[in-house]
Amino acid sequence: MEPDLTDIIARSNAEEVERAKDAAAQPSTIETIGDTATQLDSLGQIVELGGVVMSGLRVTGECIAAVCDAIPNLD
């Protein structure tokens, strides 16, 4: 091989190695999908918990209303 051609190949290989390192450092599509699914599952749990809290508050309000109705002096 000619010296110039050897240098060109070596530089090209070095560039490809750097691109491969950069690509390896990035999260894969599968990892990104997994992270998104975990976040959506967490969001679903938060929404579900919010619904439980709202139901609990409604029931608490109904209990307070029932106590107020049972004791006429509290009205």
Number of helices: 2
What amount of the residues lies in strands? Answer: under 5%
Radius of gyration: 32 Å
End-to-end gap:
100 Å
Unreliable residue runs: none
* Shape designation: rod-shaped
* Mean pLDDT across all amino acids: 80
Instruction: State the share of residues found in helices, binned by percent.
Output: over 70%
Structurally, the number of domains stands at 1
Q: Strand-and-helix sequence, N→C?
A: HH
Number of strands: 0
The biggest beta sheet reads:
none
Structural class, by secondary structure, is mainly alpha
Describe the structure.
The protein is mostly helical. The model has no long low-confidence stretch (mean pLDDT 80). The radius of gyration is 32 Å and the shape is rod-shaped. The protein is built from 2 helices and no strands. The protein has helices at residues 3-25, 29-70.
Short description:
By secondary structure, the chain is mainly alpha-helical. It has helices at 3-25, 29-70.
Topology:
Layout: H1 3-25, H2 29-70
Give short descriptive properties of this protein.
2 helices, mainly alpha, 75 residues, 0% strand
